[in-house]
TrEMBL record, chain A:
Entry-linked InterPro entries: AAA+_ATPase, ABC_transporter-like_ATP-bd, ABC_transporter-like_CS, ABC_transpr_CbiO/EcfA_su, ECF_ABC_transporter_ATP-bd, P-loop_NTPase
Pfam families: ABC_tran (PF00005)
Annotated Gene Ontology cellular component terms: ATP-binding cassette (ABC) transporter complex
Source species: Microvirga alba
Keyword ATP-binding: yes
Keywords tagged on the record: ATP-binding, Nucleotide-binding, Transport
KW Transport (keyword) present: yes
Protein's name according to its UniProt entry: ATP-binding cassette domain-containing protein
TrEMBL record, chain B:
Species of origin: Microvirga alba
Family designation: Belongs to the CbiQ family.
Domain of life of the native organism: Bacteria
Gene Ontology cellular component terms for the protein in this record: plasma membrane
The name this protein goes by in its record: Energy-coupling factor transporter transmembrane protein EcfT
Amino acid sequence: MTSEPRLPENPPAAEWRGVRVRYPFAKRDAVGPVALEIRRGERVLLLGPSGSGKSTLLLTLTGLIPQSIPAEVDGSVRLFGSDAHARKPWAWAADVAQYFQDADQTLCGMRVEDEIAFALENRAMQPALIEEAVASAMERVGLPEDWRKRRSSTLSGGERQLAALAATLVQNAPLFVADEPTAHLAPEAAGRLHALLTKAEPDHSILIVDHRLDGLIQAIDRMVVLGKDGTLIAEGYPRAIFREKRELLMSLGIWCPASTALDAALAQAGIAPPIAPLSVEEALAHLDPASTSLDRIERARPAVETFVAERSARPVVTTTNPSLMARLTGADCAPFLGPTILRNINLAIHEGEILGILGANGAGKSTLGACLSGVLALKGGTRSGAPGGLAFQRSENQFVADTVREEMLTALPKRMAEDEKRRRVADAFARWGLTDFEGHHPFELSQGQKRRLALAALTIGENWPLLVLDEPMAGLDAHGASTLTAEILALREKGRAIAIISHDMDLALKLCTRCIIVGEGRLLADGPTETLLSDPQLLKRAGLAEPSCAPARRWLQQVAAC
Amino acid sequence: MLKALNPITKLFVCIIWLTAAVLVFDARFQVACIVIPALALIVFNRTSPLLLLALMVPFALFGLGFLTTSLLFRQESDFALRMAGESLFATPAFSAGITLFLRAIACGTISVFFALTTDPGAAVRAFMVYCRLPARIGYSLFAAMQLVPDLASEAQQMRLARAMKSGRPPRRFPGPVELFSLVIPLLAFAIRRAGRTAIAMEARGLSPDAPRTVLNAPRFGRGDLIFALVAIVVCGLSIGAGSSILR
């Protein structure tokens, strides 16, 4: 699982020595001091809570900070043995391919084929070679040929992410740096991308920041963890860290693979896996129902049952006839100024219901969500019911005020008493972990913090009986996700209807009692989440994958059958 | 068909027509400058006449300014007398005003002809290859041109965000106050977007002076030659026809 030891004469691909970064007017360092190296051929995962400075650290690598983004940088950064700041950022493009957290920071608004060719044009490569490389990158990432002429800014969030990945992978640089490359990707595409990114090549190093660990972590050689203050708090092999530092990671709100919780539960039952597991299958491999003693199986069963129950939606006690919140009848849906992409949609959402909207990238989930909330007019058919609030996929689109505090205050009704406003805002800040950022401009926050602010502002008021949340977990750390989960459940208790657009099957299974799957320009399925997510054919057709706890569920079924 | 032409040919032809429209102070020629590009757009580019009319609104408003200025504030025109004399439309002031009005629309039509038949990316590539435009300037221009269509969708997102803040569904069409209030946020968006695009380009190796390949640059063909010749001849004939009618 680990890479071969490197020859000592080979300088590391990247090296930070005592690096600390402070943005102008900031009271504390955004990251650091950090001492870290990425060896050649090594695949390194960088983890840390939201706002710990992961993205900032990556931006120092080729000198974009401080040469293009102003900040004070102490310490030294070296690339392949040379001082990174000795060259301009653009001069490192042949050696370092950078995928930024926001796909819009990677793309320039050109047509897809031009976006992909851009880096190679800058290297003055022969046109025939560029054509070949573009076609190959598109095929590897899974971009259809008919996307070539589409402008990148007209793509959906997930589609943009795929195009941005193709545009960076085509560089074939010896160091690939990716900041949350799969945040908006459907599971099937994310799995394909993880496989591509982590393919072991002796001369290619990878530094990746990703919250989506299942399917990725097995290919990682070493992981590095930043604490809330932006300093290094753990470094080593993933198996060891997730077992030995689980409590620390959880306390900091750092995502762990699903297997970590199962490993801990089995350890508590006295039947821990012999090797720290990185997947649920690995965690249960030593408990094969066909060959394991009944005593061990009986000890394991409660732990596995609890693990599965914690990841499944709790049954809701509903009134016999919950009132209808919104309904689409024969709806044709199209994005703003775009063509119709979904036809004849019939869909209803009721009071106290959490509905999951699932589907592949570009299937039309966001458009459907906007139509369901009523903020986007239908091209055909009708919508009836209460107006809905929409949490945009890009949190930045939601901000209208100059400070975080003002953003929250303006979300409350004007007639509300000032004291009550202050109390509610302070309460929301504490709940969402935004207290330290009251005076900041919303655009100064990290992506995870922006997401928290957008969701906090949308849910603080009680304006909307129906809420549509578009990929609400993207960019959130585990603390943020847990706060959001609690908030969603509390809103349901108050009788609100909530639709969640997500690529996270675990989230859908945990929160949504019912899901719809969108694809092929229509609704492919509508039914109980557990049923839909256990239908392999449907999942394959829709470009989805089973939730991470599915192997545990199958294990329980095998045990029950024995 | 018009989209297949090299942007440089179209720019060259448009510059000739624009120059002629500015220099030839004749209402009939200005009408030709409006009708001929508009017909070419409708017939060869399948542009909707309604779209053309809508695009002409700002130019018509601009031209109306010239018309009213020359009618009301021309030094030799005595407004009260003219009004009483019932021959306002036959005056030189009106004639000059109407020519200026038509010239504004003519310039607008020629510009719209170029914009509606030219892909911004192809234009920038053509300038970089044939006119040796530095890549940094070329891609800055390109980013600016690409920003225009994106402003509409960004403005719509802002409207939705504001509507949600206020707890009411958004209006179908924005009012003037709402439109005005979007100006500063859209400017901020444009600045942010420009910064991000610059970083994206720099991170992918766009350098100020290093040699680079330009893929998909438009080429010159026989169609470009025919188009340029026909456009210049038609322009000349229109000028000639205008002056002979005048005589």
